[in-house]
Each structure stands twice: as C-alpha cells, then as structure tokens.
Amino acid sequence: MVNIKSEKEVELMKHAGHINYLTHKLLEKSIRPGMTTEELNRIAHDFIISQGCTPSFLNYEGYPASICVSVNEEVVHGIPGKRKLKNGDIVSIDIGVIYKGYHSDSAATYPVGTVNEKKKYLMEHTRNALYEGIKQVKEGAKIGDISNAIETYAHKHHLGVVEELVGHGVGNNLHEDPDVPNYGKAHTGLTLKSGMTIAIEPMLNLGTKHIYMLDDNWTIITQDNKPSAHYEHTVLVTKDGYEILTGE
Ligand code: MF3
Ligand code: CO
After folding, report:
1. pTM for the complete prediction?
2. Which among 94, 105, 180, 231 is the best mutation to test ligand 1's pocket, defined by most ligand atoms within 8 Å of the CB?
3. pLDDT digits over 167-226, tens only?
4. Are 23 and 104 in contact (CB under 8 A)?
C-alpha cells in the first residue's frame, strides 16, 4: 500500500530530512585520511541524538551501527569499524533519521583527500543520475519514468547499474511501498500522486553491475572490486514537481 502524507506528516519528514542533511554536512567536513569509519559513525550518532532524533538504521533488522559507511568497492551497507580511510578512497555514507516517528533517508559519496579522475567521474555521474531521476517526479508521472531516466543516464556514461537494491517509499517506516528500481521502462509502473514520499537511490559501478555480500551478512561489494558510488534523497511528490526533503 502506498501512503499519501498529510501536510502535518510532511512537516515532520521535512524536519527529519533537514537533520539528515546537517548530519551529512558534518560528516563531509569531518572526513580525513587516517580516521576510522567507526569515528564517522560516532560523530553521526551523537549529532542525531543531540537534535532530538533517532538514527533509524541502528538495530534495523539487526544492523549494528547508526549509519552505513561503504569504502571504494563496497556498494552499500558497509558496517563502520576499525578500517582507516586513506587518501584516494571514496566513501559512501548512508544516513537514516527519525523525528517523531517519521523517517528520512539520504546517501552521498565523498572523496577522502585527493581521488583519481575515474573515481571523480563515477561520483559526478552517479550524483547526476540521481537528479535525472528526481527531475521525473511529479503527480501523474510513473515510477518507470524515474527508473528509466537513471538507467539511461548511467548507461550513456558506461556505468554499471546495481539491480538487486532499489529505492523505496519512506515515511512512518524506513522502507515502504513502492519499490523504485534504478532500471526499467518509461511510462510503466505506479502513477505518482502528490503527497507520496519516496527515496530515490542509484548505486552505480565503474565496472560490472554484479555484486555479492560479504560474510558479515551486510556489506555489499562489486564482483570485480571496482569502485561504486551511491547517492540518495528523500523526495516529496507535488502537483507540479517535487521537493527534496534531504537537501539544502
Ligand atoms: N539506507 C538504506 C536504504 O537506503 C537502508 C539501510 S539498511 C540498514 O534503503 F540496515 F543499514 F539500516
Ligand atoms: Co534508502
């Protein structure tokens, strides 16, 4: 079932989205070579709590940390730990925030120090792919329009599109209907209505689209060990377009 949010609910989601955005900004400026991924988790956790919110990933289906931190060939769901970030790494950070029962979900990939041109290309075009998807959003458009815009942009730039993980509705729960795949046919799927809130989240790879899961049962890795990037926003559908709830 797809939920339509009331104005009051949208206000709560906007607040959850704003705190998510501020957490991203804080981590972005904290990232430096030599720090561990656990330190990023700690900074995010403490900030979210200090704002009267809750990190939604902590204990979600047993997930053991407050954010996901995925380095280089890690696609998503990297568990923060003792791994030290190195100059030239890229790090995908995924954050979920709950305010008064309402969720926001947002991810971005950041450079650690100076990164090579290929990684810059991957980050730039994965971010662009997210916005190509977002631009499709308005009442009357279809989920397939978003999916197709992302896939088309990714393929034009020779990037692998991860298929096993998809965007999703978001609201009282982190994951709600509908699924929002990063590949598919335009003019197909569910019709968007104003008041729907969805998380759009392309995961694109420099090499193969194929992935596997590590023995920790969380971390997703590219099969060829080439880098991957991930950008995600929580977006409100409006009559004539959209509002990004996890942006500036
Ligand atoms: N943020 C992920 C998503 O975009 C979900 C994280 S799962 C968790 O759907 F277990 F790490 F919380
Ligand atoms: Co998500």
Report:
1. 0.98
2. 94
3. 999 999 999 999 999 999 999 999 999 999 999 999 999 999 999 999 999 999 999 999
4. no
